[in-house]
Amino acid sequence: MNKKIFSMMAVALLSVAGASALTGATPANASIGHTTPAKMRGTWYSYDTYSKKFTKIKITKHTFTYAGQKIKKLEVQKFKVGGKMAYNFKQRKSTSASSFYQLGKAKVKGKYKKCLVADSSRDSVFFKSKVKHFSSLKY
């Protein structure tokens, strides 16, 4: 009898795990909301050294705009990467992958300025003002 109950529980557990894997369920350490963090709101600029142009991101309470693409029905996923909070902004019910962003600091002309780092990459660092060169990135 106990063997039968144990096998039924195992089948139920495996079917739930399989269903959540197929539907793209949220990782256990992540939470989902619809409002962006206040510290990340505003217009951010990143300088592309190859094209010699600035890329702009605009974050408001309920929207995220990148390269002219505005996401209005926003889903904000909050999780930890390397012990620091990271945020993913995407269209609600979307299964497509998108970048994650973390707040950090970078040295600009000898002083640290707040920055937004995309995908933990030194190549995608955004500032509130147009900055072409920085050093000592911390996030």
Fraction of residues in H or I helices: 10-25%
Overall residue-averaged pLDDT value? 81
The dominant shape is: globular
Name the poorly predicted regions: 1-26
**Element order, helices and strands?**
HEEEEEEEEEEE
Termini separation (Å)? 55 Å
Roughly how many Å is the radius of gyration? 20 Å
Domains (count): 1
β content, as a range?
Answer: over 45%
Strand count, sense and closure of the main sheet? 7 strands, antiparallel
Q: Please provide the count of β strands.
A: 11
The computed structural class is alpha+beta
- Number of helical regions: 1
What does this structure look like?
This protein is of the alpha+beta class and 139 residues long. It has one domain. Helix content is 15%, strand content 45%. It is built from 1 helix and 11 strands, in the order αβββββββββββ. The strands form 2 sheets. Strands 1, 6, 7, 8, 9, 10 and 11 form a 7-stranded antiparallel sheet that branches. Strands 2-3-4-5 form a 4-stranded antiparallel sheet, with no helix packed on it. β8 (100-108) and β9 form a beta hairpin. The longest helix has 21 residues, at 2-22. The protein is globular, with a radius of gyration of 20 Å. Mean pLDDT is 81; it is low at 1-26.
Pick out its properties.
139 residues, signal, four-stranded antiparallel β-sheet, alpha+beta, single chain, 1 helix, 45% strand, seven-stranded antiparallel β-sheet, disordered N terminus, 11 strands, globular
